[in-house]
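Q: What does the assembly look like in three dimensions?
Context provided by user:
Components: two
Sequences:
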Amino acid sequence: TQLLEQSPQFLSIQEGENLTVYCNSSSVFSSLQWYRQEPGEGPVLLVTVVTGGEVKKLKRLTFQFGDARKDSSLHITAAQPGDTGLYLCAGATSGSRLTFGEGTQLTVNP
Amino acid sequence: DTEVTQTPKHLVMGMTNKKSLKCEQHMGHRAMYWYKQKAKKPPELMFVYSYEKLSINESVPSRFSPECPNSSLLNLHLHALQPEDSALYLCASSQPGRYYNEQFFGPGTRLTVL
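A: Here is the predicted structure of the complete assembly.
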């Protein structure tokens, strides 16, 4: 069984602060997706990383895929209240299944 | 158009009712998924259809019955549900055969079973 450990589980910060969310596994993934989900809505795909060592930037969000493709991180610079939500990482191997992390509930206070 | 739509947005049903959830995608994807999600937890896979054929059933109780009428539509028929089945039901789609299995989710149906 593949596991994807996501940390921290909860994060409450002030507007303007920086933060990093981690996803770690002992398994190798062919790709890793990051999603953000707001209450009562479906997860929205933020990024897909596929190459070991890959770094992708999306405005204030920086995503990194580990060299061995077993771990990933999401770094947010100067967080804003609009960044509040549940952040999910999900790893893909062969086949149709995604392995989800448990999620990070982020609250950015004004 | 990278959108997956789901109807209804909200559904309240009694334990003896029969209802259906609907999902549609126009991205030309040939894999579609049903997930169940409880509050503040990750989605749990229920069913996968690939090229309109059921390829994965994650031991879901028979009171949930999926149907894939064509490549862009996915239904979930509900009958004799229990209160613990109350959850957000999510549909997703992807293009099979790609090694990176990028899934796109719909907005979900919030189901309440009384």
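Follow-up: The two ends of chain A are 40 Å apart (CA to CA).
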